[in-house]
Amino acid sequence: xxxENEISEQPRIVKSHDIRIDTDYAKWIAELKHRYRSAQVKAxxxxxxxxxxxxxxxxxxxxxxxAEERWGAGVVEQVSLDLQREFPNADxxxxxxxxxxxKWYLFYSSSETQEKLYQFGREIxxxxxxxxxxxxxxxxxxxxxxxxxxxxEFPASFALVPWRHHVEIISKCKSVDEALFYIGKTIExxxxxxxxxxxxKANLYEHQGKILNNFAEHMPALQSKLVQxxxxxxxxxxxxxxxxxxxxxxx
Length: 251
Known about the structure:
mainly alpha, 13 helices, globular
C-alpha cells in the first residue's frame, strides 16, 4: 500500500498517446483561453480604477494638506522616495508622476467643474459606454460610490482610461470641456495613447464634425489598443511575489 501511495504521488508525464484531441476538446480550450483573457482585462480595469483613485487621493492630499508649505519645497520628492523604498517593484511613484497627480486633481477640482463632471458621467452612462450587464452595473455602482467619497470630483468613468492618457490630456488641453471630450472619445473609440495624442495634435475637439466619422471604421482595432494599454499599465501593480500577478498574453 505504501509503494502504491508513493507511485501515485509522482508527477505524471502526459504523452501524446494518453489523450485524444477532438473538436469538443479544441472548443473547450478556445473557451478557456477566452475566459482567461477576459479575466485579465476585468482584473486590469479594476486595478486601473484603484490606481487612479490612489493617484487622485494623493493629489488631493498634496493640495489639501498644503504639503509644500507644511513640510518644505522638497516634500513631493521625499514622498516619492519613501513610497519607492516601500514599493520597489511598483511603477508610477516617481516625483514627476506625483507632480502630475497634484496637477490632475487641481485641473478638475474647482467648484465650477463639478456640474460638468456630473453631466459627463451621465452622458457616458446613457450612451452605454460603461459595462452593461447586471453584475457589472452593480460593481460599477459600488465603484462609483467609492470614487465619489472625496466629494464628487472624480467620475467613475475616469477609471476606464489609463493613467498615461490622463497625463497627456491635462498636459495638452486648455479647458475642462476639451479634456472631457478626449476622455469620452478615448472610452467610446477605444483609442490608444498614440491615437489620442494624434487627435489632440489634429485639434479634433475643434474639428470633430469633419473628422469624427473617420474613427468609426477603425473602432475594433482602436478598442484592442486601449485594452492592451490598460493591461500593460496595470497588470501587476508592483505586487510580489510574481505568482500573484496576472501575466499578459502575448498571442
